[in-house]
Amino acid sequence: xxxxxxxxxxxxxxxxxxxxxxxxxxxxxxxxxxxxxxxxxxxxxxxxxxxxxxxxxxxxxxxxxxxxxxxxxxxxxxxxxxxxxxxxxxxxxxxxxxxxxxxxxxxxxxxxxxxxxxxxxxxxxxxxxxxxxxxxxxxxxxxxxxxxxxxxxxxxxxxxxxxxxxxxxxxxxxxxxxxxxxxxxxxxxxxxxxxxxxxxxxxxxxxxxxxxxxxxxxxxxxxx
Length: 224
Hints:
Blueprint: E1 2-8, H1 15-27, E2 33-41, H2 50-58, E3 68-72, H3 78-85, H4 91-100, E4 107-111, E5 119-123, E6 126-129, H5 130-137, E7 141-146, H6 151-164, E8 169-175, H7 182-195, E9 199-203, E10 211-212, E11 222-223
Parallel strand pairs: 1-4, 1-7, 2-3, 2-4, 7-8, 8-9
Antiparallel strand pairs: 1-11, 5-6, 9-10
Helix pairs in contact: 1-2, 6-7
């Protein structure tokens, strides 16, 4: 099985929308792909969550329960939502659920929550960060960033943190990209030059198809 992890520079920068576009790139080639998110907050059902959106908008053939491990109703950081419901994520269950997808799918796309520095459990005797989940799943990452003002700082810092924690960054995807914008094009250039990581794709506002810049999307998935 080949896998890839989608993280971002923060909340509400379009990770889920981009994840759907990534999945769509593979499904339109009839490749066998599953989606997985360890913890989702801010929804009362899987169908109406980020996970349900990615599956339904990309054409993935996958049963609802396998899309995620933990669903929390309030739109809070997972650790705070879990505390409010007194129901905490287990890394063992996350690994079990993720590994169950290996049997039936050739590719698995996993999406994080918020930015990479996102606590999933933060109690007196138990800490679980999304970085811990990423390491346990043994996936490489792509970073989703907004194309606009401030993205150079946010993106380069995110890449630096991932590299410091021994995570291989396969590339950056710029969301809300306007090809006619001098600033957006300069942001793309500067991210590549400062970080040493390619912007592998852009996605314009309202677009459903990635503008891939170097190779096919499936080529960024690695054996895991």
